[in-house]
Design brief:
This protein is mostly beta strands and 290 residues long. The protein is built from one helix and 14 strands, in the order αββββββββββββββ.
Length: 290
């Protein structure tokens, strides 16, 4: 009787282990589909693939997790379907099966497609050159701090590069009080330019550090379309849209497997002979991978 109970116990434990096992489901090129078996894994985690003898054969890094499955990049060694998984702790990347410590940086984690939204704080500057009032030429600078919001979409290009596109709605309002009435046809000291603008632009970004705390830098550009416009300095009738070039640096902090907080600092520039515009934009919001 005792032997029977012991055998039944072993059978139950074996079934339980098989049911909850984390395994390699399939391999394509240098990517692996993993069955997490209910295990708690996150984007950026590193795992070993082990053969039937428990020897480590490959080192992988998880780049996407969804519904108990994961996609991982094979960083070192060779993985095969059916191999079991175990976590790779820091400093333990040496493997007797050839999946040794990965060379170079840990940028092998490919980005995933994502979408989200963000709020923006804008510090705007408009430099006016050769502004003529009463036959006198003036040069001055108008400044303002404004707010806006945007939706974004991320698309992976390679393991180290991804594109982020934005659609924004923002307020651009700069002003300056002149010492003498030179604005509004020489009748006012209130010099200003005010626009409600929508922007469509994007950046190509290089991943400096992978998730879960992804750091990146990039550059790009796009177009601004003015929905409303008012100025005591500029002839707004000729303003409909403008091109913008920009540089950006950002950090995406993953708070869970699929959600992250994006924080971005952008430097935008609209070069123009009459009015040179620059904006420093700080964005923060919410994003989700899929």
């Amino acid at each position: 009787m005792k032997n029977t109970i012991f055998v039944l116990f072993l059978i139950v434990m074996t079934i339980s282990q098989l049911t909850n096992a984390q395994t390699v489901s399939s391999i394509k090129d240098s990517r692996a589909l993993l069955d997490l078996g209910g295990g708690d894994f996150n984007v950026g985690d590193r795992v070993f693939a082990m053969d039937g003898q428990g020897k480590r054969k490959a080192l992988m890094q998880i780049r996407q997790v969804k519904n108990g499955k994961a996609i991982a990049d094979v960083l070192k060694g060779t993985a095969q379907p059916g191999m079991t998984l175990t976590r790779a702790r820091a400093g333990s990347a040496r493997s007797s099966g050839g999946a040794g410590r990965p060379t170079g940086s840990s940028r092998g984690l490919r980005t995933a497609q994502a979408y989200g939204f963000s709020a923006s704080l804008m510090m705007n500057t408009m430099k006016i050159s050769n502004f003529v009032s009463s036959s006198t030429s003036y040069s001055f600078e108008m400044t303002g701090t404004n707010f806006g919001g945007s939706m974004f979409y991320d698309y992976p290009l390679t393991r180290d590069w991804f594109a982020r596109g934005h659609g924004s709605l923002e307020m651009f309002d700069v002003k300056k009080s002149a010492a003498v009435p030179i604005c509004k046809g020489g009748t006012s000291t209130d010099c200003n330019a005010s626009f409600i603008q929508t922007g469509f632009y994007g950046t190509f970004n290089y991943v400096l550090k992978p998730a879960p705390f992804r750091v990146w830098a990039g550059g790009g550009g796009g177009a601004l379309i003015y929905l409303s416009k008012e100025s005591t300095v500029l002839n707004t009738s000729k303003f409909f849209f403008n091109t913008v070039i920009m540089a950006a640096i950002g950090a995406d902090y993953f708070t869970s497997r699929n959600t992250f907080i994006p924080v971005t600092f952008e430097y935008q520039m609209i070069p123009d002979k009459e009015a040179g515009v620059t904006s420093m934009v700080l964005r923060a919001g919410w994003g989700k991978t899929f």
